[in-house]
Design a protein that fits this description.
With 82 residues, the chain is mostly beta strands. It has one domain (2-74). The chain is built from one helix and three strands, in the order βαββ. It has one helix spanning 15-21; strands at residues 2-3, 28-36, 56-66. The N and C termini lie close together (4 Å).
């Protein structure tokens, strides 16, 4: 996985908006601490930005790696330069 571009929140765009704007169309690896957040609920349909599929969160996010290849099966999890 190659290191991602800087996607920290800016005054005009959130990290989510910047990641979407990059149109990466490839697998991402997000690293950080995972915890349960009972104050949220999973989203239904198009609600929520970013949409939540669970009440577990990765926060704080330490890194976002972008695979150079386009399919998850061709991105090896334990190899830093794929």
């Amino acid at each position: 996985m190659a290191g991602a571009r800087d996607v920290d929140k800016t005054q005009t765009k959130t990290a989510w908006e910047r990641i979407v704007a990059l149109e990466l169309d490839r697998p991402l690896r997000i690293t950080g601490l995972m915890f349960f957040d009972g104050s949220h609920r999973p989203c239904v349909g198009d609600e929520g930005r970013p949409p939540r599929i669970s009440v577990w969160e990765i926060h704080p996010v330490y890194g976002i790696d972008v695979c150079k290849k386009k399919t998850l099966t061709s991105c090896r999890v334990n190899v830093a330069d794929d």
